[in-house]
Design a protein that fits this description.
With 563 residues, the chain is mainly α. Helices cover 62% and strands 6% of the residues. The longest helix is centred in the middle third of the chain and has 32 residues. The termini are far apart. The N terminus is likely disordered. Its main location: membrane. One of its GO terms (biological process) is transmembrane transport.
């Protein structure tokens, strides 16, 4: 009994730690009223039965509340991950089939395995490799893709393709077959949802829309007027089962799962950090990975789909007054009550209303304000965001997330590959030395050049280091006797760059030019020793401060006077 009592004690500590005031319980009720309609819509994105959306806010929600670190993050169904795995799986098996549902649970189980490995390897830092710029573009692309697909439900059409561009063409081709009453109901729902959420963000607008539409559908028999409804929804708690995938299934699902996991880590970490900063709290990304692992394992075992840290639902929880995971536990309890006692009314929910709910969620994913800010501050990054969004829309969500990762890393490498390089040169009006971009003919003072390389030295940028120095030497107005390299920004050097640096030092020495390194950090000095740069440069030419290196250079040049 000792291990069992220990587990109970640990769970009790977790809940007590995350417990808040009674406001958390009220926030949980409010959160349930707003999010239950939304998760039904996420099930539609995932191309799963509507009840599976409710399953995502049952045991997975509780699992993260017990194991996660964040006091605010809501882990449940999410449009981005739902779009990723549904887009990939639809190319393997027919959506909605028993086989499809089995593979969906398998993806959730694989995600749990990947997340466990990520936690053991302490890979929480991987979230930092997805820049906010491309994440904004990625979510915008997903919003366009999801919103366009929901237009089919809102207009009473049926899509035969998962490609967004083909779907766009299909909407124009099917204009004559659109169902007028469905369009009217969906349009009215969108107006109420968007205007109501804007004017009364704390009110359960989504729940009101769902309840009114269910009542009207039942009372007016909207199905008789060709308005599609959800149909029968299985009630009760989910049945527990363990997915047993074959080896070929695992190989086929690995890329899809890898895409989901990266989005899960990046999006969850970004969301939990944002709200932790808002309340001046600390969050442990690696502990959150444990919670995400447990939540996805719970999803796999209860026959539902991948869950993720949801920015939208987390924002709703905070706006409702939630300050701990106790609110999420109340949310799960309300969901259980709906599953046990109120599944029958949901069957009358019109699909056009459900599509309108998801369409409004998709619109909110397109953060126009963030895109405008990015454009104003960094046009280059704005173009990267647009490329990411265009890839998601034209090619697919899975490809879009890999493009997002690649572009994030590419931008970082580009900055390192073409870093700023400066030379200290006299300002024309005052004559005081100022840092200026490297240009032919620049010289710090007679016989001396002070050069600054603003990045680590590695194989891709070391030739820039050499070219700059040789250009400054050859174009100097006065013969160069000494070069002072400001190493304050250089913290590391690789094998290839070290060889290039040794070569240029030997060339300069052969021309009678002394090279001094100033502001050399201890870790850079160790690299210089390991790569045999120190013997070529000379220990006497290495300085911890720049001013001592410059004083030595002036002495070597006959105490040259600063211009």
């Amino acid at each position: 009994m000792a291990p069992l009592s220990g587990i109970k004690k640990w769970f009790g500590q977790r809940i007590t730690k995350k417990s808040g005031s009674w406001s958390d319980m009220l926030a949980g009720l409010s959160l349930a009223s707003m999010n239950i309609p939304q998760v039904l819509g996420y099930a539609r994105i995932a191309e799963m039965p509507a009840v599976c959306g409710l399953y995502t806010v049952l045991f997975p929600l509780v699992a993260f509340a017990l194991f996660g670190s964040s006091r605010h993050l809501v882990v449940a169904a999410d449009s981005a991950t739902a779009a990723i795995f549904s887009s990939g799986l639809s190319e393997i098996v027919s959506p909605g089939s028993a086989r499809y549902m089995e593979l969906v649970s398998t993806v959730a189980l694989l995600n749990a395995g990947f997340l466990l490995v990520a936690r053991l390897c302490r890979l929480g830092f991987l979230a930092d490799f997805l820049s906010r710029t491309v994440l904004v573009g990625f979510l915008a692309g997903v919003g366009v893709q999801v919103g366009l697909s929901m237009l089919y439900d809102m207009t009473g059409l049926v899509s035969n393709s998962h490609n967004t561009l083909v779907q766009a063409v299909g909407l124009f081709q099917g204009f004559g077959q659109m169902q007028g009453l469905s369009i009217a109901i969906a349009s009215l729902s969108c107006v109420v949802l968007l205007a109501g959420t804007r004017q009364k963000p704390h009110w359960p607008i989504g729940l009101c829309v769902v309840l009114v539409s269910i009542f009207c559908s039942w009372g007016l028999n909207l199905q008789h007027y060709d308005v599609a409804i959800l149909g029968s929804i299985r009630g009760g708690l989910p049945a527990f089962s363990v997915p047993v995938p074959g080896w070929h299934d695992v190989l086929a699902l690995l890329p899809i799962s890898a895409s989901c996991v990266f989005v899960i880590i990046a999006q969850s970490a970004a969301t939990s950090r944002a709200f932790a900063n808002m309340f001046h709290e600390h969050v442990d990304e690696n502990a959150d990975i444990v919670g995400l692992c447990a939540a996805n394992a719970a999803a796999a075992l209860t026959g539902t789909f991948t869950v993720n840290g949801s920015p939208t639902q987390t924002a709703m929880a905070v706006q409702a007054g939630a300050r701990s995971q106790k609110a999420q536990l109340v949310f799960a309890a309300v969901t259980a009550c709906v599953l046990l006692f109120f599944p029958a009314p949901l069957q009358y929910l019109p699909r056009c209303v459900l599509g309108a709910i998801v369409f409004c969620v998709a619109i909110r994913m397109i953060d126009i304000q963030a895109l405008v800010h990015i454009r104003d501050e960094s046009p280059g990054e704005f173009r990267l965001a647009l490329v990411t969004a265009a890839t998601v829309v034209s090619v697919g969500v899975e490809q879009g997330i890999f493009i997002a990762i690649a572009l994030s890393l590419f931008r970082h490498v580009r900055h390192s590959y073409m870093p700023h390089t400066l030379v200290m040169a006299p300002e024309p009006t005052t004559g005081i030395l100022e840092a200026q971009a490297v240009a032919p003919g620049e010289q710090s003072m007679p016989g001396i050049i002070i050069y600054r390389f603003c990045a680590d030295l590695f194989y891709a940028n070391c030739n820039l280091f050499t070219d700059d120095i040789m250009e400054l030497v050859s174009s100097a107005p006065n013969p160069v006797k000494c070069i002072v390299v400001d190493c304050s920004a250089i913290t590391d050097i690789d094998y290839s760059a070290a060889q290039v640096v040794r070569d240029v030092l030997q060339q300069l020495h052969a021309r009678g030019i002394t090279v001094l390194f100033g502001r050399v950090a201890p870790f850079f000095l160790k690299d210089m020793d390991r790569h045999h740069i120190t013997p070529v440069l000379g220990k006497e030419n290495i300085y911890m401060q720049l001013h001592t290196a410059l004083a030595s250079a002036r002495k070597l040049c006959g105490d040259a006077k600063v211009l």
